[in-house]
Amino acid sequence: MLLADDHLILREGLAALLQAQEGISVVAHAQDGREAVRKATEFKPDVAIMDIVMPELDGIEATRLVHQPSPMTQVVILSMYSTTEHIFRALQAGAKGYLLKESAGAELVAAVRSVHAGRRYLSQKITEAVVDNYIREHQPTDPLGKLSSREHQILQLVAEGKSTADIARTLCLSPKTVDTYRSRLMQKLDIDSFAGLVKFAIACGLTPP
Question: Structure pTM?
Fold first, then answer.
């Protein structure tokens, strides 16, 4: 195990935590990114814990470089940053895990064991951040994202072959209101026929062909 962080107290704390675990030993420390690459080259540890913000060379670039002399070393990023930009850059550089420093005590051992076994490990907070970002980025390109909840419901019922009267009863609306919603749907989706609405709903997976 290699620990790379520019804060001595944090490194010593992590070392004490990890070495108290069965089957885990810390073989090297590094206080900057370049030293981390050198120590990885020398010791070829199974796992490296890497901070992002370090002198000389940041942890993400160090992660990329570590894999050249020591391709079997699995890197876990331990950082205060939870932005998706940092997470994606780290994963693209070859990191196998990503943890926030605030949750290090609770999750670090699990992360080390997971990446050592060849599995990716993202802390729960990181997973939520990635998913939230995906939703934000993809909602504008999702055609259904244009629709309100009520419009979505009506589209599905229309595609299932329900009549205006059936939809009105199901949703406790007047038939006239249902017709208004359906017209608005067609306008929003730039669809000019009932058949077109059905095809769109099938394409979006709202109803089987």
Answer: 0.65
Same domain, 21 and 122: yes
The CATH number of residue 161's host domain is 1.10.10.10
Contact 74, 43 (CB under 8 A): no
Phi, psi values for residue 99, rounded to 5°: -130, 155
Q: Which residues of 117-146 are buried (b: 16+ CB within 10 A; e: fewer)?
A: eeeebbbeebeebbeeeeeeeeeeeeeeee
CA–centroid distance for 100 within its chain: 14
- Give a yes or no: residue 194 inside a domain: yes
Chain segment 119-144, per-residue pLDDT in tens: 999 987 777 667 666 656 655 556 67
Q: What's the domain range around 40?
A: 2-137
Q: Report how far apart, in Å, the C-alpha atoms of 27 and of each of 19, 34, 76, 128, 166 are.
A: 10, 17, 16, 33, 71
Residue 8 belongs to a domain: yes
Question: Are the beta carbons of 185 and 137 closer than 8 angstroms?
Answer: no
Number of independent structural domains in the chain: 2
